[in-house]
Design brief:
- This protein is an alpha+beta fold and 175 residues long.
- It has one domain: Beta Polymerase, domain 2, CATH 3.30.460.
- Helices cover 43% and strands 19% of the residues.
- The chain has six helices and five strands, in the order H-H-E-E-H-E-E-E-H-H-H.
- Strands 1-2-5-4-3 form a five-stranded mixed sheet, sandwiched between helices.
- Strand 3 and strand 4 form a beta hairpin.
- The longest helix has 29 residues.
- It starts with 15 loop residues before the first helix and ends with a helix.
Length: 175
Amino acid sequence: MDIDFTQLGYLLQGNDRQKKVYELLYKNKVFEILKEFSPILVGTVPIGIDLPESDLDILCQFEDQDEFIRFVRFHFDNKPQFKLKVQSTYEFPTVVVNFILEDVQIEIFGQTLPTNQQNGYLHMLVEHKLLQEYGSKFKERIIDLKRKGLKTEPAFAQVLGLSGDPYRAILNLAK
């Protein structure tokens, strides 16, 4: 089944957690606030392999890093456990913002790269396709490994028998 992950409406057709995530993001106008940065919800929640403690990962694209930092500080620095970190990820300037919204951990990940070209989005598309292709037993194996402490990409890599850096291995599957 093809899903347009760039629009949050698909969450309303999903499981209970996905519906609650939609309500949380809608009620708090998170995507409305971030709209000029082309936000996309990525990670485990959109593809239904999240754990109860899984955070919500939101990708954003910015042109001016300082302007983006000012913007997210203005809108979110009053939230519990607000943290902002500037780093370089695969040679792209990156701003990572974390905070709590109604007991849910939020991570905003901003780069100069368009959101639909960022690794988090590409990983999710590959993982979604694999989940569709391999079915429920495959999905349960991934979730079980995540419960045992593995991150998502390493869990996929282990189940698929991929070697090397699991993040790059998953991206290579996109090709």
